[in-house]
Specification:
141 residues, 4-stranded antiparallel beta sheet, 2 helices, elongated
């Protein structure tokens, strides 16, 4: 199974509140969804997807695109998806991972332009505290 030609078709982003209004906590929810699977050949399928980062009442980022999925069972997966809107877990995991790897870096850049927090957890550096047992992390000098 191979994923190629990931491309974005649409970018929509909004900030609902002014930049000087800063809520105490912002919950960022991520969602990626497959919206359409069309078989091109017996070994290729075109998959349309949508990625959304929702900041609740603060804003949102929505990206839409497509990718080319190559596999011997591409036609079977396409026909199964059209009937049940489901695909095998391993394939779905592979596709959603590729979508996230493409969209999250793009969403980080868009979030910066809108003054929203990045849609990824930033590492926390804590100096002068004793680390808990079992937790390993980068060493800070």
């Amino acid at each position: 199974m191979k994923i190629r030609n990931i491309q974005l078709k649409s970018i929509e982003a909004r900030r609902y509140i002014n930049r000087n209004e800063r809520p105490k906590q912002v919950r960022i929810d991520h969602n990626s969804a497959v919206t359409l699977i069309s078989d091109i050949k017996t070994t290729e399928a075109l998959i349309d997807f949508q990625y959304t980062a929702s900041y609740g009442p603060v804003g949102m980022i929505k990206l839409e695109g497509s990718l080319l999925y190559e596999s011997d069972d591409a036609k079977k997966i396409s026909s199964e998806w059209k009937k049940t809107r489901k695909m095998p877990n391993q394939i779905a995991s592979h596709i959603h991972t590729a979508v996230m790897h493409t969209c999250v870096p793009e969403a980080v850049s868009i979030a910066k332009d809108l003054g929203l927090p990045p849609p990824i957890p930033l590492p926390q550096v804590r100096l002068g505290t004793t680390p808990e047992k079992g937790l390993a992390g980068p060493e800070v000098a």
